[in-house]
Amino acid sequence: MSRQVLMTDLTMDTGVQELLVKAEQETIETAFQRAKEQEPHCKFGLTGVCCRRCLQGPCRVTFNGNKGVKRGVCGATADQIVARNLLSLIVEGTTPHVEHAREILHTLLETAEGKAPYEIKGKEKLIAIGKQLGLMVDGVELDKLAREVALIALQDFQQQSGVSHWLRLRAQEQSVETWEKLNILPSNAHLEIANAINKTAMGCESDPVSLLLAIMKMGLVEGYDGLHLSTDLQDILFGTPRLVKTQYRMGVIKEDYVNIAVHGHIPMVSEKILEWSRKLNNKAQALGAQGINIVGICCSANELLMRQGVAVATNYASQELAIITGALEAMVVDAQCIMPGLAQVAECYHTELISTLPNIKIEGASHVDWTPEAADQMGEEIVRRALAHYPERDQSKVRIPGDTVEAYAGFSVEQIVELLAALNGPDPLLPLIEAIAQGDILGVVAIVGCTNPKVKQDWANTEVAKELMRNNVLVVATGCSAHSLGKNGLLSPAGLQYCGEKLASVLTAIGQANGLPALPPALHMGSCVDNSRIDDLLVALATRMGVAVRELPVAGSSPENHSPKALSIGTFFIAQGVDVHIGVNAPITGSPLVEQALTANKGEFSVTTDELFGGKLIYEADPIQAAQTMIVRIMQKRQALGLVC
Ligand code: SF4
Ligand code: MSK
């Protein structure tokens, strides 16, 4: 097999292919190579039947039901071990989002109290949320209102009883009734996480059904005090996204600029880097550069893209390759999805890898502390360091793949409603609902989540999207999947060529009513925490249609999932009654009970999430098959609603 074929097998991104060849020439190791070195993977790990919860083990029990031992030393069965391990994994997915929400909450509180150098840019969002929380908003100063909102949010981390305020704020009543009956309404995110860890501890909970309900409860913690709380407070602080146009691919790194990549998730860090890059832009010119160029990776990219139109270099699996261009003066990281391998790659160049969060340090990286109060000092210090590295750049090591692709983003629910209002001002959701009812839009599927070096980068994400579009399914996207679609032209009106005729004419009509040639076939709705925006859209549609969310002809798909966060987000949507497809299987197949409960593939175990909530897990590695499976389900839900089929 030639080298080019090998690189082509690893990623669809031609820029990344080119940089993988460069990495090989310079003997630099990347995640793509390390993924191959891990093969074949341990079957006990893959199927979830390895337990390391106490020092009598590790215990490995049978994963195919007949060969091997059936119980661990303590007597735990495969069902019990798999359910406990899955709950741990969902906690590991939920906790980073809950901590993300807590960081933004404190930043908002300190901003409102005049202690942090941020500005409340989302006045309308603040007033809307204040009203929904039952606060007095008329004539109240913005800072005072923001403080009250932040203090209510803080109760979701402190109260010892009652129901999460953000769940009450954002959930549809029908869903709350379902969750109440099952006794899974969460009250305090930290308490629920502690309870879940306690359940999984050795010698604690061993009833797999109770563990499965704890998994669903954790999905609600993820949804409301992770995703929704983060998005709402970020919109208050930084503003609600509106339509923006940008560029994608490694070519957004510019040879004649001081380049800084922001990577991770926390917009309080990346927004400050952007702000200081603008303030110190003239210093770059004094060094002979054209200016300072900020590019994004992963969800820091999404945050800056959605609100500021900043260009996106790449997504998760190829984060190391951005450094291999040889043209990054600094890579600034905060939290989540930061590969430890970045430090090793940065050592080969003049690039400074800089961590920023006080409680997240990266071996081999330098550190500049971000706190809400010290945000300006951090921003200035990091940008000045990047400027200082520009003269150290070794031009002989610079190779930036040339091409870029145009993309649109900024599709908050507020922006979507505004675009639809051009068709029907008094009732903006009606044109969308009519298009769904008539079958011009067959359904809506959210393509979310990651890239994973186990899967050819961007391939499954784009294949699922194209197959859905071809069948007139409207695609919305977040996270690194949105980047996959962006890199491949599906966030641009040019991508309309992949749509069925009916979908294309709806997107063209909405676009033209707003002075655009058309809307893109996939609407980019933001970062991983912005999956809350997708949930808001579903709740708004269901409420306007007078049905429950679980009845809508919609689904979610994460074709290249790698992070436990993709699984916890998926769990939240299953709890809402939405089917969720994953392309890389979760470690559940060692337990028939857990697998059947989540996938509703009939077996002797009769209680399934499909029956309890209206949503189930679909595992399918083949993207075309996955899209077809979701379409079958969408058709079933359409039929049940009496819509044109
Ligand atoms: Fe083995 Fe039980 Fe300990 Fe797990 S908790 S390692 S199954 S003895
Ligand atoms: S960054 S969780 S790889 S989407 Fe949100 Fe991308 Fe998945 Fe991380």
From TrEMBL:
<keyword id="KW-0533">Nickel</keyword>
<feature type="binding site">
    <location>
        <position position="50"/>
    </location>
    <ligand>
        <name>[4Fe-4S] cluster 1</name>
    </ligand>
</feature>
<dbReference type="GO" id="GO:0042542">
    <property type="term" value="P:response to hydrogen peroxide"/>
</dbReference>
<dbReference type="InterPro" id="IPR011254">
    <property type="entry name" value="Prismane-like_sf"/>
</dbReference>
<feature type="binding site">
    <location>
        <position position="337"/>
    </location>
    <ligand>
        <name>[Ni-4Fe-4S] cluster</name>
    </ligand>
</feature>
<feature type="binding site">
    <location>
        <position position="51"/>
    </location>
    <ligand>
        <name>[4Fe-4S] cluster 2</name>
    </ligand>
</feature>
<dbReference type="GO" id="GO:0050418">
    <property type="term" value="F:hydroxylamine reductase activity"/>
</dbReference>
<protein>
    <recommendedName>
        <fullName>Carbon monoxide dehydrogenase</fullName>
        <ecNumber>1.2.7.4</ecNumber>
    </recommendedName>
</protein>
<dbReference type="GO" id="GO:0016151">
    <property type="term" value="F:nickel cation binding"/>
</dbReference>
<dbReference type="InterPro" id="IPR016099">
    <property type="entry name" value="Prismane-like_a/b-sand"/>
</dbReference>
<keyword id="KW-0560">Oxidoreductase</keyword>
<dbReference type="GO" id="GO:0051539">
    <property type="term" value="F:4 iron, 4 sulfur cluster binding"/>
</dbReference>
<feature type="binding site">
    <location>
        <position position="59"/>
    </location>
    <ligand>
        <name>[4Fe-4S] cluster 2</name>
    </ligand>
</feature>
<dbReference type="GO" id="GO:0006091">
    <property type="term" value="P:generation of precursor metabolites and energy"/>
</dbReference>
<feature type="binding site">
    <location>
        <position position="265"/>
    </location>
    <ligand>
        <name>[Ni-4Fe-4S] cluster</name>
    </ligand>
</feature>
<keyword id="KW-0004">4Fe-4S</keyword>
<dbReference type="InterPro" id="IPR010047">
    <property type="entry name" value="CODH"/>
</dbReference>
<keyword id="KW-0479">Metal-binding</keyword>
<feature type="binding site">
    <location>
        <position position="480"/>
    </location>
    <ligand>
        <name>[Ni-4Fe-4S] cluster</name>
    </ligand>
</feature>
<dbReference type="GO" id="GO:0004601">
    <property type="term" value="F:peroxidase activity"/>
</dbReference>
<keyword id="KW-0408">Iron</keyword>
<dbReference type="Pfam" id="PF03063">
    <property type="entry name" value="Prismane"/>
</dbReference>
<dbReference type="InterPro" id="IPR004137">
    <property type="entry name" value="HCP/CODH"/>
</dbReference>
<feature type="binding site">
    <location>
        <position position="528"/>
    </location>
    <ligand>
        <name>[Ni-4Fe-4S] cluster</name>
    </ligand>
</feature>
<feature type="binding site">
    <location>
        <position position="450"/>
    </location>
    <ligand>
        <name>[Ni-4Fe-4S] cluster</name>
    </ligand>
</feature>
<feature type="binding site">
    <location>
        <position position="299"/>
    </location>
    <ligand>
        <name>[Ni-4Fe-4S] cluster</name>
    </ligand>
</feature>
<feature type="binding site">
    <location>
        <position position="42"/>
    </location>
    <ligand>
        <name>[4Fe-4S] cluster 1</name>
    </ligand>
</feature>
<feature type="binding site">
    <location>
        <position position="54"/>
    </location>
    <ligand>
        <name>[4Fe-4S] cluster 2</name>
    </ligand>
</feature>
<keyword id="KW-0411">Iron-sulfur</keyword>
<dbReference type="GO" id="GO:0043885">
    <property type="term" value="F:anaerobic carbon-monoxide dehydrogenase activity"/>
</dbReference>
<feature type="binding site">
    <location>
        <position position="74"/>
    </location>
    <ligand>
        <name>[4Fe-4S] cluster 2</name>
    </ligand>
</feature>
<dbReference type="InterPro" id="IPR016101">
    <property type="entry name" value="CO_DH_a-bundle"/>
</dbReference>
